[in-house]
Hints:
By secondary structure, the protein is an alpha+beta fold.
Amino acid sequence: MAYERLLSARKKTVGTKQTLKAIERGQAKVVYVAQNADRHVIEPVLSLCAAKNIPVIQVDSMLALGKACHIDVGCAAAAVTEE
């Protein structure tokens, strides 16, 4: 299952802004990105992950990613910061 690490993580970020901050600080272990998110929203996350060699897992929908993060709305990006 694509969400295993996210569901079992002790700490995670939820949302594009928080995920970008975690990547910049070197805290993100793996990043999840919703495929149906607007490209201009997730492009900075994908670029930064490529530059810092952080693995990116593409998931089907923002709604499913939001549910995996235990929120009631969609989420474009999330990251595991502590396993």
